[in-house]
Design a protein that fits this description.
- With 91 residues, the chain is mostly helical.
- Helix 1 packs antiparallel against helix 2.
């Protein structure tokens, strides 16, 4: 995998971003190297955002009821908080 090719999975993208941030925060990079690292970080951030947007669309498509409304249901095995009020998504 080259520096211009994004990783194949989201976790690897985040790990690469963390590495870039550490390098930039170290202050040991030359201006040119810092700019190159920053540009790579921007590309990885855009890739990660695209992956998150795609995942959100898939979740919404799987979670919508026939009327197009989000069907909110607790995760299997999630402890019941004993709250009888209408459930709302965490977002």
């Amino acid at each position: 995998m080259s520096d211009t090719t994004p990783p194949q999975d989201f976790a690897a993208t985040v790990a690469q971003l963390e590495t870039i941030v550490e390098r930039l925060e170290s202050g040991e990079l030359s201006l040119e190297d810092a700019l190159t690292a920053f540009e790579q970080g921007v590309r990885l951030t855009r890739d990660a955002q695209q992956r998150l947007d795609s995942a959100e669309l898939k979740v919404r498509a799987l979670s919508e009821d026939p009327d197009g409304k989000l069907a909110v249901a607790p995760f299997a095995g999630a402890p019941d908080a004993g709250n009888d009020s209408e459930e709302t998504p965490p977002w």
